[in-house]
Amino acid sequence: MREINTRDTVAFARIIAVTNIKEDIAKASAKGAAVKAEAAKIADEDERAAFISRETEALGIDVCINLLMKAVANPKTEQQLYELIAGIAETDENGKKLKADDIGKMKITDTIALVKQIAEANNLVDFFRNASALTTK
Predict the structure, then answer these.
(1) Which of 27, 38, 68, 95 is the most exposed place for a label (fewest CB within 10 A)?
(2) How far apart are CA 107 and CA 104, in angstroms?
(3) Do 67 and 80 touch, CB atoms closer than 8 A?
(4) So what's the pLDDT on residue 133?
(5) 3-state class of 91 per DSSP?
(6) What's the Cα-to-Cα distance from 36 to each of 54, 104, 111, 125, 131, rounded to whole Å?
(7) DSSP code of residue 40
(8) pLDDT tens-place string over residues 72-99
């Protein structure tokens, strides 16, 4: 798996524009700010970190599910999303190069697990925010 780069951000901005998910990202970003404010009230550092991790993951999953639901309405966008995921993931657990078609054929639970791995390896909040900023809507 590689780090998310500028090309990924621009590709995702195109997906955002077509799927009109910018509003969902803005709502998630606002909820993320609320999570940070709530987390600041937690005294124990480990509990605070666990709370932030749990809540941030839930927000990310919500955005990803909304994106998938909107992307499937447009086969071209669906393909672009698969290409983006495959490009970032690079290989499967056996070291085989992933292609967009491989992502499309995965069980949804495996795709979600892969997106979670991408999220853990990268800062998806910044990725979503930066890609969203590139759109004109």
Answers:
(1) 95
(2) 8
(3) no
(4) 80
(5) strand
(6) 12, 35, 28, 13, 22
(7) T
(8) 788 888 899 999 999 999 998 899 999 9
